Amino acid sequence: MTMQAEQKSLFFVTWNTNGIRDTRKSPQKFSNIFKSLRDLQADIVFIQETHVGTDCYKILEDVPGWKVFFTVHNSRSKGVVILIKDKVKFEYICHDEDFSGGYIVLFCRLHHELYTLVNVYNNKSDRNVLGRLKDYLMETAEGVLVVGGDFNTVLHPCFDRRSLSSNARHSQFRAFLEDFTVSLNLRDTWSYKRPTDEGFTRRQNDSHSRIDMFFLPEHKLGRVCKINVAEAQGVSDHYPLVLELTVQQRTETNLPNVALKLPKPFKYTPDRRPGKISGAEILSAIKSLTDLKEYSLDMKDVKSYKKRRCQLTETLKIKYNSMIENKAEGERNTLEYLIFSQILAKRLNATISPSFKGKIATKHYTFSTVKFEAGPQKIKWSFLEIKLKNLQPGVKKPKQSPSAPPPEFSILEHFMDCLLPKDQSSSELRLLEPGCPLTNAIFNLALNELEAIVLRNFCKGTICYQRQVLRVHTPPITSDFVDFFINVFKKQSGLKISISQHPD
């Protein structure tokens, strides 16, 4: 709708559709979603829980009347998409996808004005998604920042939830959302425009809640014309949230810092592989670089990388994902090599980190501690390869942190082989260099195997990853068993360990 000759309003919609494909229960779900969007006169749409994996992404590749930007993650969970109506004046600049399918960030121009559009699904199994997104946006967001999505928590249980229960309490996810909004100076648009109205966006049995929201920076709230919750039957247990914003006609030519080193004209090149390296991961790795004299790297280069970190998120992302696609090996002992190693190590650690749930027995009459011997270590590639394969989805494995995002395992397996130096005496052995990010991650993976051996021998074990020690709770063990345990593990892995026994 035209507001003034020099202004227009745009209708933004955020909606958790709990899948977008047709199902047995909803045989016309996909078409019903887009019929609802037409009825709502939607211009820009954020959809959560698309459930789009490698086997079904083509459903979003060519949607008549829309430009589509989406994540490919899993056909049963997560996934987000941003849709831009063809009639909207739109210029693509660049975008970033969460490697866990939790969000997509689109840098663009709408009616020639710079925007950062963010669609987020704050999945309950991934407690780190808002933290990752916050750190990325604090460095990269420019222009008009619009954040929408399903945040899986209400802002206030008294105002934003109605149920049969007489007790109201904050969700455990509320603190993560508070940190996210405060850090980015964001305000909930519903609370701003309709402070006394309920506006529930989700129904579940007798419970109603407002967990789907649009956030804007404080200084952009004057753009809000209207916001309302719409009816849409038969799609999901969420209702669409519709936000109308005034859009200023501009003739801007400035670019966001994140895109300054990208080739022009900007071109959207779809990459439908799951688990790609994200700009957020690269940014986090660069920011963590400190004194790197042990790596024989020039600190001037480190300072330069830190200064240009925003621009490098896009250029390195292209390079790393091209390496992955072509299975190419980068040059060792460089900053780029170190950054890539840190990203892979972080992913590996995420898959094996403890859940911090449940009780841990502490009173045992005797216990033994197992640790890795000091000094240089070598690991058998065959052992490491099997352990990496066992982490893959569908392979039975020990309990892991529910927040651990599933990495793209072919990335880990291939590049672990490339990044770890081979021993000159045997192509089967890989050197674990002290201080290398991958070394600690591999030790932690080996600790999991040690614990599995302990459990198979009807003992109890407790791992402390910071100490890189396994505590085994057993009756007194003989020296013969100690020798057997050490030799079996060394034969399997190539790693050298030591065991010491402690009376209570």
From TrEMBL:
Probably binds two magnesium or manganese ions per subunit. The record marks 152, 212 as: Transition state stabilizer. InterPro entries: AP_endonuc_1 (IPR004808), Endo/exonu/phosph_ase_sf (IPR036691), Endo/exonuclease/phosphatase (IPR005135). Gene3D superfamilies: Endonuclease/exonuclease/phosphatase (3.60.10.10). One of its GO terms (biological process) is base-excision repair. Residues 13-238 form the Endonuclease/exonuclease/phosphatase domain. Its cofactor is Mg(2+); Mn(2+). The active site is at 121, 150 (proton donor/acceptor), 238 (proton acceptor). Its EC number is 3.1.11.2. GO terms for cellular component: nucleus. Keywords: DNA damage, DNA repair, Hydrolase, Magnesium, Manganese, Metal-binding. It comes from the Eukaryota. One of its GO terms (molecular function) is metal ion binding. It catalyses: Exonucleolytic cleavage in the 3'- to 5'-direction to yield nucleoside 5'-phosphates. Mg(2+) binds at residues 16, 49, 150, 152, 237-238. The record marks 238 as: Interaction with DNA substrate. Belongs to the DNA repair enzymes AP/ExoA family. This is exodeoxyribonuclease III. It comes from Ictalurus punctatus.
